[in-house]
Amino acid sequence: MPVVAPTVIGGRTLHGAERAEALEERPLELERGVHGAHELLARHGVLPKRCSASSTAAWTTGTAAASTVPANYDALIDGQGGLDMTVLGIGGNGHIAFNEPGTQFLSWTHCTWLEDSTRKDNQASFGAVHPPQKAVTMGVKTILSSRRIVLMASGEKKKAIVEAAFRGPVSRQVPASYLQEHEGLEVLTDFGFSLTR
Q1: Domains of the chain, CATH where assigned
Q2: Which of 6, 10, 185, 193 is least enclosed by beta carbons within 10 angstroms?
Q3: What global pTM score does this model have?
Q4: What DSSP character marks residue 113?
């Protein structure tokens, strides 16, 4: 079994589930009342407060000195030996992490605007707080650099988009379809669709 090196973000060492959550998706503009994984990241000072105007890969957290915040998360990941496994869900519009429809194949970790449908789907994670309009996410290329990828989908409402992503053509309009390019992919669902490479 591969050993996952710890990740240091904002001066805090993250292991296991914390590391996986921290490196996947980071909503911005969080307020009080945030729940779930987003709350975990906010509590540990991992979430950046805003995207830099000059670069989509440089952020400040407001809770750590700028010198402790990585300027390039992809270099941080690579410096820790890369990603052994990335576990993903799929959005109703085909997004993975927060790579919305239209995201380029060659995208790395970046700041992105969230589609209204994504914000609506994630409302429960934010309780009474409005979901953010922007997020920092691992890019498609970052995800595809993982040695193994597991995508999980639950509920009949995800069936059509899963089939489009894995039985249809690779398309910028369905970012999950980029995963067809990965040789270590496993897709698990509760509606009878599965795929293992």
Answers
A1: 7-196 (3.40.50.1360)
A2: 6
A3: 0.68
A4: E
Please report which helix (H) or strand (E) contains residue 194, including its range: strand 194-196
Query: Is pLDDT above 60 for 13?
Result: no
Rg from Cα positions in the chain: 16
Angle in degrees, CA 9, 121, 83, rounded to 5: 35
Phi, psi at 88, each rounded to 5° = -125, 160
**Placement of tokens 């980071």 in the chain:** 26
Helix 16-24 to helix 36-43 angle (10° resolution) is 100
> Residues 97-123: pLDDT tens digits?
999 999 999 998 888 888 999 888 888
Length of the chain: 197
The mean pLDDT of 52-71, rounded to a whole number, is: 36
Identify any residues that bridge with 184 across adjacent strands, giving them in sequence order. Answer: none
* Separation CA 21–CA 35 (nearest Å): 14
